[in-house]
């Protein structure tokens, strides 16, 4: 077993602190990754604060990981020492259910193994990427194309795939009007990706304070949702709305913006239920949907798509000692648009 440096949350409300944790021995199919950068996702915060249910503390979170392969097991064929690799939100799944067999391990019917806070196959609780090293089965390790800036690539492993997957599933592209609700980590990636796919993109943010950024990232239009006129002006206009907001919103108001056969897909994951009146769906034959990250094959496709189109998250690189401050800034929407931790500073 390898003992490594990490930052852990000791409880649901105490600041994260430096700790030493162990990583399992490298098995025949495992890859040891020397982590270089780890992104901060709002899900890390929901999880630690037990907003989605009780967890076992202390916990090391982080599921936007990039690093270099430091060691491979005897049967590993997909990765070699020195390769640039990434790990997202999952590190294993059953591999047998119909969803796994379809390459959609995120929907594993037996429950995939999350990168943190899940029961691993050896019975231990998985610990995430706010750390210097991690051991992962080679099938859940992605290749990070050389052309992508390494630090800025980290958020692609969650924010990137979580927005890419629904945009692909609901066929964002030329002739499609796509709205992105919330200009945070996921939202800013949804804007870049939908624009690269050829869709007409509108940002719906609470205020116009990030409008210049939105237009620079590829949005065609930008509206403030705190202005009631927005909902009048845009009603019946979108084919697809991607809601990335981490808090409850007034669903009926947003559903009213869908044109005939339009879909609103929720990727934001507030703890509270979102009340829905079905009559809003009857109008225009609207759909309301959810989407969770993406499968391994699609995550690789997204990384390659980003390399091909020169898409990279807008990031702020921080030291580990700044994590608690960064979390406060995420909670106050003061992030442009993803914090990435330099793993060298876990030492
Ligand atoms: P984030 O960077 O904090 O962005 C969330 C954005 O939501 C903010 O930038 C803000 O946008 C808006 N917002 C925040 N509080 C709000 C409020 N009270 N009312 C209205 N708007 C508000 O978070 P993130 O990392 O992108 O994650 C977003 C959500 O997606 C989280 O709930 C996270 O857990 C979830 N998530 C889901 C998946 C999945 O697989 N489905 C994967 C990753 C993350 P404006 O300032 O522009 O209004
Ligand atoms: Zn995430
Ligand atoms: Zn499965």
UniProtKB/TrEMBL annotation:
<dbReference type="Pfam" id="PF08240">
    <property type="entry name" value="ADH_N"/>
</dbReference>
<feature type="domain" description="Enoyl reductase (ER)">
    <location>
        <begin position="11"/>
        <end position="341"/>
    </location>
</feature>
<keyword id="KW-0479">Metal-binding</keyword>
<dbReference type="InterPro" id="IPR002328">
    <property type="entry name" value="ADH_Zn_CS"/>
</dbReference>
<dbReference type="InterPro" id="IPR047109">
    <property type="entry name" value="CAD-like"/>
</dbReference>
<keyword id="KW-0862">Zinc</keyword>
<dbReference type="GO" id="GO:0008270">
    <property type="term" value="F:zinc ion binding"/>
</dbReference>
<protein>
    <recommendedName>
        <fullName>alcohol dehydrogenase (NADP(+))</fullName>
        <ecNumber>1.1.1.2</ecNumber>
    </recommendedName>
</protein>
<dbReference type="InterPro" id="IPR036291">
    <property type="entry name" value="NAD(P)-bd_dom_sf"/>
</dbReference>
<dbReference type="InterPro" id="IPR013154">
    <property type="entry name" value="ADH-like_N"/>
</dbReference>
<dbReference type="InterPro" id="IPR011032">
    <property type="entry name" value="GroES-like_sf"/>
</dbReference>
<dbReference type="Pfam" id="PF00107">
    <property type="entry name" value="ADH_zinc_N"/>
</dbReference>
<dbReference type="InterPro" id="IPR013149">
    <property type="entry name" value="ADH-like_C"/>
</dbReference>
<keyword id="KW-0560">Oxidoreductase</keyword>
<dbReference type="GO" id="GO:0008106">
    <property type="term" value="F:alcohol dehydrogenase (NADP+) activity"/>
</dbReference>
<dbReference type="InterPro" id="IPR020843">
    <property type="entry name" value="ER"/>
</dbReference>
<comment type="similarity">
    <text>Belongs to the zinc-containing alcohol dehydrogenase family.</text>
</comment>
């Amino acid at each position: 077993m390898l003992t490594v440096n990490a930052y852990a949350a000791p409880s649901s409300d105490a600041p994260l602190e430096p700790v030493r944790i162990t990583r399992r021995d490298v098995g025949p199919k495992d890859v040891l990754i020397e982590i270089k950068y780890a992104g901060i996702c709002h899900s890390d915060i929901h999880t630690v604060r037990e907003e989605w249910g009780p967890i076992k503390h202390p916990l090391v979170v982080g599921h936007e990981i990039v690093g270099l392969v430091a060691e491979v097991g005897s049967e590993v064929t997909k990765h070699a020492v020195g390769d640039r690799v990434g790990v997202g939100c999952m590190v294993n799944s059953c591999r047998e259910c119909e969803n796994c067999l379809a390459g959609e391990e995120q929907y594993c019917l037996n429950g995939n193994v999350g990168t943190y806070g899940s029961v691993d196959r050896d019975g231990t609780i998985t610990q995430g990427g706010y750390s210097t090293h991690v051991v992962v089965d080679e099938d859940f390790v992605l290749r990070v194309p050389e052309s992508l800036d390494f630090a800025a690539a980290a958020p692609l492993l969650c924010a990137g795939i979580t927005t890419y997957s629904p945009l692909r599933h609901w066929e964002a592209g030329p002739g499609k009007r796509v709205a992105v609700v919330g200009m945070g980590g996921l939202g800013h990636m949804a804007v870049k990706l939908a624009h690269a796919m050829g869709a007409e993109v509108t940002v719906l943010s609470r205020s116009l304070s990030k409008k210049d950024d939105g237009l620079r990232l590829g949005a065609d239009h930008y509206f403030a949702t705190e202005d009631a006129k927005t909902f009048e002006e845009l009603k019946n206009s979108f084919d697809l709305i991607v809601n990335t907001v981490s808090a409850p919103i007034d669903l009926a108001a947003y559903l009213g913006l869908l044109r005939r056969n339009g879909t609103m897909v929720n990727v934001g994951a507030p703890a509270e239920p979102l009340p829905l009146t079905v009559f809003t769906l009857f109008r225009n034959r609207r759909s309301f949907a959810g989407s969770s990250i993406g499968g391994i094959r699609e995550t690789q496709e997204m990384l390659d798509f980003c390399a091909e189109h020169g898409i990279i998250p807008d990031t702020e690189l921080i030291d580990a000692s700044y994590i608690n401050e960064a979390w406060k800034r995420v909670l106050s929407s003061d992030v442009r648009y993803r914090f990435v931790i330099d793993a060298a500073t876990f030492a």
